[in-house]
Write a structure and sequence with these properties.
Pfam families (chains A, B): Sacchrp_dh_C, Sacchrp_dh_NADP
Oligomer: homodimer
Number of domains of chain A: 2
CATH superfamily of the largest domain in chain A: Dihydrodipicolinate Reductase, domain 2
Protein name (chains A, B): Carboxynorspermidine dehydrogenase
Strand content of chain A: 25-35%
InterPro entries (chains A, B): NAD(P)-bd_dom_sf, Sacchrp_dh-like_C, Sacchrp_dh_NADP-bd
Distance between the termini of chain A: 22 Å
Strand order of the largest sheet of chain A: 10-11-12-7-15-16-18-19
Largest sheet of chain A: 8 strands, mixed
C-alpha cells in the first residue's frame, strides 16, 4: 500500500492529473505539485480548489523543482513523503526522475518515452536506449516503474493485452489509430508541447512489420477508416512509443501507429519542416545570436493549455486488431471516445490532455491498492488490463468495442 | 565631374555594382567596398579580379564599416577620396550614410527607401518620413542625392517619366508590374534579404488611386497579364517605394505596383505570417531567450546570393501606362527582360540582383559626367530619363516597348 503523490510537471496533462488525484485523495493521500515554474503549479492548485475536486479534506502543496536534479527531486520525494511519483513533465527529465524514485523507493509512472534533447528518432526499440537499461536496477531495488501509462502509449497497450487475452488465439496485426476530430478554432496549434509534438514527425517513421523494424517517411503512408462517432477519418503512419514495447512483449508480427492529420496541419508542418524551422540544432542569426528554430516556433504558437476553453468536438483512439479466434478470422476495434468540452468542464483541460492525464491516476490508484505495485519496471501490456480499464470506465474514459456484434461499451466488473 | 566610388554593402546587389563599376573604372576611378563583414567585400573583390572586370588598371579596396556610424562613414569617404557613394547596404543605414555624404560633399545614391527596423509600413508618402525631410539640407550643401535608383524603384520611375514626356498628353494610370519567371530550384528562397523582402508584404498595401492613398491587405487584389517573353503571369497589388514619389511628382491619378507570386510562395508566406514568424517584434522562448522570429527565418533560408549559380529563366519588369495622346486613348508597356543565367555568367549574380545593381552604376556614370549631378535630393522621375535609359541599353538592361505597333527595343541615341 503506497500513498501520497508527487506530480512533476505543470502543463495541461498535469492539470488533469492533479484534478483526478484530488477526486481520489481518500486513497491517494496528499498531493504535491512540482515544476520549474512555481506559478504554474499554483494555478493548478487554485483550479483544484475552485472546482472543489478534493474528495476528502487533504493537502495540495506546490514546489519549484529542476527535475533534472536527481538529489533535489529525491529530497522533495522524501520531504513530501510521496510514495508515488507521476512524471508528466518534459520527456527530457524521465531518467533523472526515475533515478530519484529508485533512490527513495517511490513508485515511478510516466506517460511518454525519455528523450535526449539533442537527438531525434533514435534506433528502435526506443525503450532499449534509456528505460530498459535500468530494468535490473529497478528489480534489485524493488522499484515499481510503469512506463508510458498515458492514453497512447498506455491505455492502447492495455487494449492490446485485452485483445490478446480475450478476443484472439493469434493476432496478425494491431493498428493503433489516434484521431482528434476536435477543433480549437486557432489558425494552427499543437495539442501538447510543440517541441515534443513536432519531434514525433520530423524523423523517420518506425513501424513493426513482418516482425521487423521498417522505415518510412512521415506522411508517406496513409489510411482512411470509418470510425465510431467521429466518422470517416484519414490518418498517417507515425512513429510512436508503444510500438517499441508491444513489438517485444506481444507475439504480433505487425504493429503500426496511425495519427489523424488534416490537410491544413500537414501543410503548415511541411512548410516549417522544409524550411528547417523544426530543427533542434541551433542556427546563427546575421547578428550572431545562436537560436534553436524549434524553440522559436514553440514561442510563437498558442500555449496548448490555452486551447481548452474553446475546444469542441471529440477524440477517438483505439486498437484495430486482426487475427484468428477459434479457427476463424476476426477483427475488433477497442476504443475510447472523449469529448473536449466535457473534459474542460470537469477539469479545465482539453480532451487530449484529459485522455493523457486520467490513465496515470488510475494506475496510481492500482499501485496504491497493491494491484499494480509490481516492484519492477514494466510496460503497460505486462500488467493485467481489466482492473485498469474498469477503473477508467468509472473515471471518465470508458472502453468500447466494435466487432461482429456491433459497437458497445465494455464492462469488466 | 566626380570620381572614385564607395560601395556600401556586400550582398548580391553590391556584387553587381562592383563588377559594373569595374567595367567603367576609366570614368568612375577607384572602387572602395565597405560592409560590416570584411570577408564579404573581399569575396566580391576576388570575383571582380577573377572575371577580369576592370576596364583599365585601377584600385579596388575593401573596408570593414558600421554604416550606422556617421563619423566612421565620413572618414572612410575622405580616406578613399570617394566623390560618389552607392549605398546598397541594409535599408536601415540610408540616413546615416546620407549624413556622411552631406558632411563630405559626396554624391549619394541608394536603391531602396530608408526603414526603421522597429516599424513596418509607415504612413504614406514613405519618403516623407525620412528622406524628404532632408531635401533642404541637401540643397543648402549642394549634395547630389538620387533616391531609389535600382530597377524598381529606379528604372521604372524613368519609364514613367519617359511615358509622360514622349507617349502621352495625359496619363490615367501607371501599373508597375514586376515578374520573376525564373526558378532557383530550392524549396523556398527570397531573391534578396528576407528581412527586407518579407517586410514589404506583412503590412498594409498602399496604392495611389483616384489621387488618394488607398489601403488593401496583401494578396487581396490580383491581376493576370499576358506579357512579353514571360507570357501569362499573375501578380498581386503590393506596397512599393516608387508609388510614394511618383504620386507626388507626376500628375497621374492611379499608380499601383504589382508583384508576381506563385502559389507556393504565397502558401509559405501565409503560413509563416499567420504563425507570427515574420514578426520583427521579439518573442521569448521557454528558456527565456529573446529572439526576433524574422531573424530566425532569415537564418534558415538560403542566402540569396547562393541562388545565382543554378538560377534559370527570365524577369520582366515594366510600366503599363494608360492615357491619352493627341485626343486618342492609348496603352503602352515599357519594360525590360533580363536573364538570370546571363547575369550570372557576366557578374556572378542572379537576375534580380543584376536588375537592381546595374542602374545605380549607370546613374553614377551620369553623376561622374555631370549630366545627373544635380546638387540636390531628387527621385528618378525628376531627372531626364533618356541619357539614363540609353546607358542601360549599353550596360545590359535594354528598354523595350509594346504599343499599337507591337514589341520592339527603344533606342534614344
Amino acid at each position: 500500500m503506497k500513498k501520497n503523490v508527487l506530480i512533476i510537471g505543470a502543463g495541461g496533462v498535469a492539470q488533469v492529473v492533479a484534478h483526478k488525484c484530488a477526486q481520489h485523495n481518500d486513497i491517494l493521500g496528499n498531493i504535491a505539485l512540482a515544476s520549474r515554474t512555481l506559478e504554474k503549479c499554483e494555478a493548478i492548485a487554485a483550479s483544484v480548489a475552485e472546482k472543489g475536486s478534493m474528495k476528502v479534506a487533504g493537502q495540495i502543496c506546490c514546489f519549484a523543482l529542476d527535475a533534472l536534479d536527481v538529489e533535489a527531486t529525491a529530497s522533495l520525494i522524501r520531504e513530501t513523503q510521496s510514495q508515488i511519483v507521476i512524471n508528466v513533465g518534459s520527456a527530457f527529465v524521465n531518467m533523472s526522475v526515475l533515478s530519484a524514485c529508485i533512490k527513495t523507493g517511490a513508485a515511478y509512472l510516466d506517460t511518454a518515452i525519455h528523450e535526449d534533447p539533442a537527438k531525434i528518432c533514435e534506433t528502435p526499440p526506443w525503450y532499449g536506449n534509456y528505460e530498459w537499461k535500468r530494468k535490473q536496477e529497478c528489480e534489485n531495488n524493488k522499484t515499481t516503474a510503469i512506463l508510458g501509462i498515458g492514453f497512447d502509449p498506455g491505455v492502447v497497450n492495455a487494449y492490446a493485452a485485452l485483445a490478446r487475452d480475450e478476443y484472439f488465439d493469434a493476432i496478425d496485426s494491431i493498428d493503433i489509430i489516434d484521431i482528434n476530430a476536435g477543433s480549437h478554432g486557432k489558425y494552427f496549434a499543437t495539442n501538447f508541447d510543440p517541441e515534443i509534438n513536432f519531434r514525433e514527425f520530423t524523423g523517420r517513421v518506425w513501424s513493426w512489420q513482418n516482425r521487423q523494424w521498417t522505415q518510412n517517411r512521415m506522411f508517406e503512408i496513409k489510411r482512411t477508416d470509418s470510425l465510431p462517432v467521429v466518422g470517416e477519418q484519414t490518418s498517417y503512419m507515425t512513429g510512436h512509443d508503444e510500438i517499441h514495447s508491444l513489438s517485444k512483449n506481444l507475439d504480433v508480427p505487425n504493429i503500426r501507429f496511425w495519427m489523424g492529420f488534416g490537410e491544413h496541419y500537414i501543410n503548415v508542418f511541411t512548410v516549417l519542416n522544409n524550411l528547417g524551422l523544426l530543427s533542434e540544432q541551433p542556427v546563427k542569426t546575421a547578428e550572431g545570436q545562436e537560436v534553436v528554430p524549434l524553440k522559436v516556433v514553440k514561442a510563437v504558437l498558442p500555449d496548448p493549455s490555452s486551447l481548452a476553453p474553446n475546444y469542441t468536438g471529440k477524440t477517438c483512439i483505439g486498437d484495430l486488431v486482426k487475427g484468428q479466434k477459434d479457427g476463424k478470422e476476426r477483427e475488433v476495434f477497442i476504443y475510447n471516445v472523449a469529448d473536449h468540452k466535457e473534459a474542460y468542464n470537469e477539469v479545465g483541460s482539453q480532451g487530449i490532455s484529459y485522455t493523457a492525464g486520467v490513465p496515470p491516476v488510475a494506475a496510481a490508484l492500482l499501485v496504491a491498492q497493491g494491484i499494480w505495485d509490481v516492484e519492477k519496471m514494466v510496460n503497460v501490456e505486462e500488467l493485467p488490463p481489466k482492473p485498469f480499464l474498469n477503473l477508467l470506465n468509472q473515471m471518465g474514459l470508458p472502453t468500447c468495442i466494435r466487432d461482429e456484434a456491433g459497437e458497445r461499451p465494455l464492462n469488466f466488473s
